[in-house]
Predict the 3D structure of the following.
Amino acid sequence: MNTSRNSTLLIPNNNFADRRLLRCFSAIVTFLILIGGFLPAIAEAQMQSSTSGNPQSIRLGEAIVVPGTAEALVPVYLTSEVEIATWQMGLEYDELLLNLVDVEFTGTESELLDPILIPTLNQNSNLSGFQVVYPGPEFFSTGEGLLAAFLRFQWIGTMPIPSPSGLSTPITLIDLETLPISMTSPSGLVTIPETQSADVVIHDYPLILVEESMAPLTAEDFLVPVRAWTSDSASTFMMGLEYDELLMTQFIVTGSDADRLSSGNWDLTIEMTPAGVICTLETSTPLPPLNGETLGFLRIDRPGNQPGQPGWGPWTIGLNPGNCEIDGTPVAYLEPGSMTWISWFMRGDANLDSNLDIADAETILGACYLGIPVDCEDAADTNDDGALDVSDVVSVLQFLFSGSPSPPAPYPDAGSDPTPDLLDCE
């Protein structure tokens, strides 16, 4: 397993780069002329196979109550192939352990849509269900797994918390008698979405946590934070990280809270294991009690989306209880995390390097006529017609050299595909 990777950036001579670009452009244009007569038939055949996209769903994300606090934010994700004017659901949870105190929209896709929250109260006057209404003229967007809200839960339990995995309690989506789970489009079409429940996990001191992280496909690498909660000061932190050997990773301390709190006076040792690495961070002076500060970051390079591999995730990042210590004492609580590359891309960026240039035309040609796979077919579908063919190469070249309009959304910023079709990034 590799824990680091060196790279060298080669900057070509401008004249050489111009000549290479001209030769490449000439070759592509010649190729297009030769096969031009087949373009309409190819496009028509592939368009006929296009169909509508993802089903509707409401999914809850996992959440934790960290030491020293009594609250957790449970994310709510919506998937829909049509815009959403309203959505609603009931909730079932252990009211001896949790109390739902609010539904929040700050930091979500709903925030700028002026959502109206209509709660349903149970006999104890606690929230047990709610409806969210978007008054328009803008409605909740189509897309897959868009963050719509946070459920703020308060921990009210009093029982001991087991270690090392904490106390887990489920939050379940249910139909209430007056509030069935549903989504409604602006035209009044009511659908019953698929649902996915989640758990809230309660931890105590000391805790090491790997953050649940997501990145768009345009990110070639991403830093996954590793955080700690301690009730006392400490100077030695050992973390046994476990993950798939296909991931290219490197543990980084520079720029973390531990780097800042130690004024850069720290030492890191890395020991390879069959399942990952053991990282031991030692600071010259003890760090104060930590409240979720970062000990470091696990940098993960974007994996290739090839057959037989896990693809875009989630890639689990575990913590080995036998190799996690603070000042030589085993850590009582451990929270594993994951890394997921979500299907956000820039239209036309077929090679996922965050640029739209002639290299993308080459990539699309290779996919269409040489059978070379692309990691994101949606990104290569430059004209967003639901088919991957030579017309996408033409669209790239016309935009770059003929002043044609820019590609359809998402462009120039990365985002999800607004058009349902058979192409995807999975």
About this structure: Residues 344-426 form a domain with the Type 1 dockerin domain fold (CATH 1.10.1330.10). Confidence is low (pLDDT under 50) at residues 1-22, 29-54. Helices lie at 14-35, 39-47, 257-261, 358-369, 377-380, 390-401. The longest strand covers residues 143-155.
